[in-house]
Structures are given as C-alpha cells and as structure tokens.
C-alpha cells in the first residue's frame, strides 16, 4: 500500500500567492544577490518570514524551522526548499544583508514594483506615525543617544530603544517609533521609517517626506495628508510652498483658539458631497513662510 504524505497549506497559500504576484522574492534576490551554494535564497527566506508572521504564531528564532514541519514548504516557498534549510543561521545572515542594504530602501523597491503591477495610485498619500512598545532589558548610554542590549553593549545599534510618547498608553515601557506613508484610497504602505523611541511626529514628518522624495522611483504624490503634528512654524517654512498638503491646525495655537471662539455657526457652509460636514474658509499668516500671500486653511 503506497504511503500518503499529508501536508498543510491553510491560509498561507493565499499569502504565498500574493507574495509571488508582487515579486518580492525576485526583487530581494536581485538587490541582495545570491550565491550558487545557497540552498535557499534571501528572497525565499523573507517569504518564509512573511508566512511565519502571518501564521499567527510567535516563537524564538531557533525554533523558526519547526513552523514549517508538516507544511507544504516546497509548494509555499519554492522547489527544493526544506524546513531545515530555514534555520536561525540562515535567517540571521539574510537579516544582516537586508540591514546592510537598507530596510527602508528595499521596502521602497518592493512598493514601487507593487504599485506598477497593480496600478496603485500614489496621487494622494497619507502620513502618520505610531509607537511600538517592547519588553526586555536595555542599557542606555549617558548621552541617551544610543541604547545597547546588555550582552552586546559594545556594538552599535540602528535605533534607540527608549521611552517617549506612548500611543498604546504604556509609558513604563521603552519603545521605537514607526512611520508609514500610504496610498490614500487603498491605504497600502509605500514608504516606511523606523526611528528612535523618543522621536516626535513633528520632527520626523519632514525627514520621511524628504527620504521618500529622494528614493521613490515612481511619480511623486500631488498631495500629502498629515495630522496636526506637521503644522509648525518650522515645517511650514520648509515645506509650505514645496508640497501640497492638508493638515489639522493644532488647537494649542493661539490663533486657532481665537477662531474657535469668534466664528459663528452661520459662517459655515454645508459640504455637498459629505453630509454632516461643514466648513468655513479663513486666511492665516502663521509662520509667514517664504513671504508669500496668506494660504487658505
């Protein structure tokens, strides 16, 4: 009687198909390079990490290969790929390669190709940030500029894991910040930036815009939508007439507080396309950027 080998795919088959449609494996292999003796390419390792992440399981890195035991690994990742090839040593080497190449840059390469293949429009974009809390022991130098893991206290790190404004209401935990620029209609990420835990949106938004404009290979956006953190004298002087933007005016600004008190309900007009929304156009010379005429807000 022939032996029957049953292997699981579950929902991972859909995710693997999306990865293949975007071309993530080919892009990473092209940018990172490959070696004729490697059993699994860098792109395939990244695909395996995506599948693992979307498998709704968490485990130490040395148990990574166990995730694929009993699964149709060759069907999901590629011909000849076995679970034991996805060991912690191979994953560590690939992550080092990605870090040396530039995580943000490889993300942009993938996002650019995705937009081309699927016709994703970046005409209007939305920029926002959040914080990601972490657990564990971290040592901080006296200057506070670098955070060092205890067992690797002599090695440089990419970002500072430190305390800052916590979006998830855990000021007791250290964190890092994460900013995403997404396409407005689909909400698909097209640019990302990971930064120190005490970085503010006000200082990071300009950095993200500059980096995106320098690295994005497609057509530049017509409009940037950001929250009130962008609206500062420094940012308006630097970007006020360089990009088209929409932002909420912070209620902490004196001029905004005064307008809230003096504008009458009858001064507002009904928004035709969006019921329940009304607007009132006012002019402001806040920041007086580039000595140009007042802008409507």
Explain what the structure shows.
By secondary structure, this protein is α+β, with helices and mostly antiparallel strands. It is built from 9 helices and 11 strands. It folds into 3 domains: 90 residues, no CATH class; 129 residues, Nucleotidyltransferase, domain 5, CATH 3.30.420; 46 residues, no CATH class. The protein has a 5-stranded mixed sheet. The longest helix has 16 residues.
How much beta, percentage-wise?
15-25%
Q: What would you say the CATH architecture of the largest domain is?
A: 2-Layer Sandwich
Q: In CATH's first tier, which class of the largest domain applies?
A: Alpha Beta
State the end-to-end distance. 77 Å
What average pLDDT do the residues reach?
Answer: 85
Number of helices: 9
Radius of gyration, Cα only, in angstroms?
24 Å
Main β-sheet description: 5 strands, mixed
What global shape is seen? elongated
The run of helices and strands is HHHHHHEEEEEHEHEHEEEE
As for the number of domains, it is 3
Which runs of at least 5 residues are low in confidence (pLDDT < 50)? 142-153, 290-297
The CATH topology annotation of the largest domain reads as Nucleotidyltransferase, domain 5
Domain Transposase IS4-like: 127-276
Domain DUF4277: 5-111
Pfam families: DDE_Tnp_1 (PF01609), DUF4277 (PF14104)
Protein name: IS1634 family transposase
């Amino acid at each position: 009687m022939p032996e029957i080998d049953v292997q699981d795919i579950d929902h991972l088959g859909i995710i693997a198909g999306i990865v293949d449609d975007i071309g993530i494996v080919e892009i990473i292999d092209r940018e990172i390079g490959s070696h004729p003796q490697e059993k699994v390419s860098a792109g395939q390792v990244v695909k395996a990490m995506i599948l693992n992440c979307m498998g709704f399981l968490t485990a130490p890195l040395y148990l990574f290969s166990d995730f694929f035991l009993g699964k149709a690994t060759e069907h999901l990742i590629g011909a000849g790929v076995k679970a034991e090839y996805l060991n912690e040593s191979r994953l560590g080497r690939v992550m080092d390669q990605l870090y040396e190449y530039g995580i943000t840059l490889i993300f942009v390469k993938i996002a650019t190709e995705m937009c081309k293949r699927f016709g994703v429009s970046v005409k209007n974009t939305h920029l926002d940030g959040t914080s990601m809390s972490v657990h564990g022991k971290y040592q901080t130098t006296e200057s506070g500029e670098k955070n060092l893991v205890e067992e690797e206290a002599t090695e440089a790190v990419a970002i500072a894991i430190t305390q800052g404004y916590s979006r998830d209401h855990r000021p007791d935990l250290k964190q890092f910040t994460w900013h995403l620029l997404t396409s407005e209609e689909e909400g698909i990420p097209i640019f990302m930036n990971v930064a120190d835990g005490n970085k503010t949106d006000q200082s990071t938004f300009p950095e993200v815009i500059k980096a995106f404009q320098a690295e994005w290979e497609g057509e530049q956006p017509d409009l940037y939508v950001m929250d009130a953190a962008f609206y500062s004298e420094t940012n308006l002087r630097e970007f006020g007439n360089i990009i088209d933007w929409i932002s909420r005016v912070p209620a902490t600004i004196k001029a905004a507080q005064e307008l809230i008190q003096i504008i009458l309900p009858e001064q507002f007009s009904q928004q035709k396309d969006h019921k329940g929304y009304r607007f009132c156009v006012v002019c402001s010379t806040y920041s007086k950027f580039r000595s140009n005429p007042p802008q409507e807000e």
